[in-house]
Design goal:
- The chain is of the alpha/beta class.
- The protein contains seven helices and six strands, in the order E-H-E-E-H-H-H-H-H-E-E-H-E.
- The strands form two sheets. Strands 1-2-3 form a three-stranded parallel sheet, covered by helices on one side. A three-stranded antiparallel sheet has the order 4-5-6.
- A hairpin with a 4-residue loop joins strand 4 and strand 5.
- The N and C termini lie far apart (41 Å).
């Protein structure tokens, strides 16, 4: 069985043997689901796969506090602590039901959304220092390279959801109604400060918007369908995050 994985290509190396023998059931919420399993439980209207798991487990019996903890983590992290645009009233109802089991929701929120490693803070500092702004500040671009990670002594876990960092700049708004991150696969170098990045040049993008958790980067090997982490697609030297303001 696979959970929150939309495509065969998103299986990790450790999961490839299971993929080779055949997946009996895929539980997912991604509209891009490729239906690689013998049976698929898909609800693309759900903001988090944890909502689906909650519904299934509720049919089997009561939800205990011990069960509620990983379910709440799944739902809250898949929605950016309920901030992503795909979050629905049903998402909040699931979270409320999990809280009503008596689980310690406050420590979970502190751990996952209000705590940063020193290395992550250094990454954000370096991104801020090296950020390029264009069109009178309406566009911000920050190259993320392996050398930057080395400089900050950052791991893949420290880079989780790093492309959302620029979206915190005041004035940020989704540049299109699609609700998905548009991100370049590699960023070998940054354009000169003050110049406009080529709209279609390889390695550069001009916009970033919030997805239904296809986000650019949850920690590799942890949920989200196996989205890429430190190493960009195609083996480039880094990734690039951009925000239109």
């Amino acid at each position: 069985m696979s959970v929150d994985i939309a495509a065969r290509s998103l299986f990790t190396r450790a999961g490839e043997p299971w993929l080779a023998r055949g997946v009996d059931l895929a539980i997912d919420h991604h509209p891009s689901q490729e239906f690689f399993a013998a049976q698929t439980c898909l609800d693309a209207g759900r903001a988090a796969c944890g909502e689906l798991i909650y519904d299934i487990l509720r049919e089997l019996g009561p939800i205990t506090p011990a069960m509620a903890v990983p379910l709440y983590v799944a739902v809250s992290t898949d929605t950016g602590c309920f901030q992503y645009s795909n979050t629905t009233a049903d998402t909040h109802r699931v979270a409320a039901a999990l809280m009503e089991t008596g689980m310690d929701v406050f420590s979970l929120n502190k751990r996952h959304f209000r705590t940063k490693s020193w290395a992550r803070l250094q990454v954000e500092r370096l991104l801020t220092e090296r950020m390029h702004r264009y069109e009178d500040g309406k566009i911000a671009v920050a190259p993320v390279s392996l050398s930057l990670m080395d400089e900050a002594d950052a791991t893949e876990e420290d880079m989780e959801d790093i492309a959302a960092f620029l979206g915190q700049i005041e004035g940020w708004r989704p540049p299109s109604p699609s609700g998905s991150w548009r991100r370049a696969a590699s960023c070998p170098s940054a354009p000169a400060a003050g110049s406009t990045p080529p709209r279609c040049a390889p390695g550069w993008g001009a916009a970033a918007t919030r997805p239904p958790r296809a986000a650019p980067s949850p920690a590799p090997g942890r949920g989200g369908g196996g989205h890429p982490g430190r190493h960009p697609a195609g083996g480039g030297r880094g990734i690039e995050a951009a925000a239109c303001l």
